[in-house]
Amino acid sequence: MKKAFVLVVLFIFPLVAYLFFASGVNNFGKLPVLTENIPNVSQIDNAVNLNDKITILGFMGGEIEQKKGNAFNLNQKIYKRFKDFKDFQIVMVVLDGTEDKVKSLKDELGTLSNVEKWNFAYGNEAEVKTFFHGLKTNLSLDENLSTPYVFIVDKNRNLRGRNDDEDEEIKYGFNTTSVAELNNKMEDDVKIILAEYRLALKKNNANRSK
Predict the structure, then answer these.
(1) DSSP string spanning 57-86?
(2) CATH second-level architecture of 33-208?
(3) CA–CA separation, 113 vs 64, rounded Å?
(4) Which InterPro entries does its entry note (predicted)?
């Protein structure tokens, strides 16, 4: 009986573990595309661009001061962890006329980390509404054209998210009010999309070396 147990531990368990993790790679190796080819934020503000970047996209509208807590959560839980990846950025869409408030926010964030990859796109009400509508999500902006939710956009301007989320089924965005959601869901999803691009880069480099 003892020998049988030892055999199971030594040989069967590792095999089961391998199959489990191999299955996980196949099932969770890519983050689903929920909306293809969203508009480029450069249509609103040509100083900011989504092309060829892995972007965390948010909408602060005219509520810069009211959304400071959300920005700090995002900075601490997501930005600081991934800011050193070359093509990673955060883009916040804000209303024209909020430049001073944005500067104040960046100054405060800058006391905690280097904020060079925090970008702000300025637009008028109509432009912000049109751009947000182009994401084609099940979420909406409030009366100040802001939302606590942020979105993951890949280098081809595809909105990525979850199509089998245990709580929402289809998950377009991540609530920056919830530290738990940033820790338990968004961080994992950003890791997945970065791993996708690392794998693609390795394949391209391997093909070139042949």
Answers:
(1) EEEEET-TTTTHHHHHHHIIIIIHHHTTST
(2) 3-Layer(aba) Sandwich (3.40)
(3) 19
(4) Thioredoxin-like_sf (IPR036249)
CB neighbour list of residue 118: distance below 8 Å, 6 or more residues apart: 75, 79, 89, 90, 92, 106, 109
Please give the structure tokens belonging to residue 112: 């905690």
Closest CA to 72 of 58, 85, 84: 58
Residue-range domain boundaries for the chain: 33-208
Q: Which residues of 82-109 are buried (b: 16+ CB within 10 A; e: fewer)?
A: bbeeeebbbbbbbbeebeebbeebeeeb
Q: What are phi and psi of 87, to 5 degrees?
A: -100, 20
In the numeric block, which tokens belong to residue 38?
């969203």
DSSP annotation of 149 reads: E
d(CA 11, CA 19): 13
pTM, two decimals, is 0.83
| Residue at token pair 């909105």 | 159
